[in-house]
Amino acid sequence: MSDTIHNPDRFMVDLRQILSQGRKRIGLLVGAGAPVSVRVNEEGKLDQSGNPLIPDVAGITKTVLDQLEEADRACVDTLLPELGPNPNIETILTRIRRLAQAIGAAKVHGLAGPEYEKLAERICEKIGAIVAAPLPEEPNPFTELVSWIGGTHREHPIEIFTPNYDLLIEEAFERARLPYFDGFTGAHRPFFDPTTITDDKLPPRWSRVWKIHGSLGWNVIGDGIVRTGERKATTLIYPDHLKYDHIARQPYSALFERLRKFLTTPDSLLLCTGFSFFDAHITSVIDEALAANSHTAVLAFQYKTLADEPSAVEVALRRPNLSVYASDGAVIFGVSGRWQPGQPPTEEWASIRRTFWNADGAGGKGQFILGDFAKLSRFFASAHAIELRPASESAVAAPDAVVTTPAAAPVDVPDGGGDAQP
After folding, report:
1. pLDDT tens by residue, 155-200
2. Do residues 360 and 300 share a domain?
3. Whole-angstrom Cα distance, residue 310 to residue 324?
4. How would you classify residue 138: left for phi > 0, otherwise alpha for psi between -120 and 50, otherwise beta?
């Protein structure tokens, strides 16, 4: 990391201003790390000492492989050396489906095509059992996120893109009685209509939820994709986007195109949480769109240190309109540097800072905490607690804005900052 210093106060002032207003076009990319930050006990109640509500991809992979029957596990083990280092359940499932489509009656590693198809179904069933965990009844990070979404009159709808299969976001919207649209229409068996994804005729108060890797309850019936309302995995859980049949490929091509369209719309802001940038499909769309549109910004809130987030950092160093906010530092407008807050200009600012900064973290050096989805959701929800006057320079609206604020420089603090709660 270079000797450059980034002052988190300046950037969080600007972000809170954007979050508390409803004028900017905002999207959220919610990755597998989001439900990991929600911890529950064996009864499904919130408990910080409990286990993640839903494990991350690595955790799902381990659990599924451990639960496979002996014969199925033996077959998967023969495929693992062909999949490169650290294959996850999605790459394993993709390979199995490709074999099911390609080999027909021939046998590879002792199985024919139909047998691989059945193996894929059994793996999907186990994935579904893991990600079908319901949203805890108590207020939680997902309900706080939705509370922020519904608490502001907006000129543009919030668009949520997620590769997660679970129904946590949908449950949070429905619990709050807030409308959202996911590309399906109908009542008995809602069907996927790709033409509606490119249209923005619904009112801005209707948020958009785009399940870009599929979802529990999706299924192929007849010549279309339907949402069954069940909490079961189907063959539509993460099919390979390029090698699947036409019908099943339809929602994924349309949803990825929606992500690309959002990112190439001028003056858009995509906020990433729980996303590692290891997913080559999604990362390539972000990379290409940022190269094509310098008037869009992406903020990636990463849980680990910069050194432990190489995939996100690599893209941020190449694309100045992608900023990475890690626990120990940031890459902002292509410049890597460590975090160092400035001197609080007022006593009231300390309470605001505690919403994004842990002064006792990282061995007393301080730690940026918004890489934790739970902390970020609380930060979003608390953005309505104060009115922010426009900052002199926006850290997220324009790629040519000031990259950093010297540690000793004063920060432009909003009027009424003392009303914020930590």
Report:
1. 999 999 999 999 999 999 999 999 999 999 998 889 998 888 887 7
2. yes
3. 11
4. beta
Specify the amino acid at residue 259.
L
Which residue range(s) make up the domain with 85?
A: 57-131
Q: Which residues contact 132 (CB under 8 A, 6 or more apart)?
A: 166, 167, 216, 231, 232
Note the pTM of the prediction, 2 decimals. 0.86
CA distance 411 to 392: 10
The one-letter amino acid code at 230 reads: E
Residue 102 CA to residue 84 CA, distance in Å, equals 21
Cα angle vertex 276, ends 208, 198, to 5°?
A: 25
Q: How confident is the model at residue 232 (pLDDT cuts 50, 70, 90)?
A: confident
Is residue 147 in some structural domain? no
Report residue 122 as tokens. Answer: 């059994």
End-to-end CA distance of the chain: 30
Q: List the one residue out of 118, 212, 199, 201 whose CA is nearest residue 162.
A: 212
Taking CA 106 as the corner, what is the angle to CA 105 and CA 108, rounded to the nearest 5 degrees? 130
Find the DSSP H helices in 151-278.
Answer: 168-175, 194-197, 246-263
Res 185: pLDDT: 92
DSSP string of 14-70, one letter each residue: HHHHHHHSS-SEEEEEE-THHHHT-EE-TTS-B-TTSEESS--HHHHHHHHHHHS-H
Task: Say if 227 falls within a structural domain.
Answer: no
CA–CA dist 326, 308 (Å, integer): 9
CB 161 within 8 A of CB 286: no
How far apart, in whole angstroms, are the C-alpha atoms of residue 19 and residue 418? 18
Instruction: In whole angstroms, give the CA distance from residue 261 to residue 257.
Output: 6
Q: For tokens 């299924």, name the residue.
A: 219
Phi and psi at residue 273, to the nearest 5° = -140, 135
Assigned domain for 245 exists: no
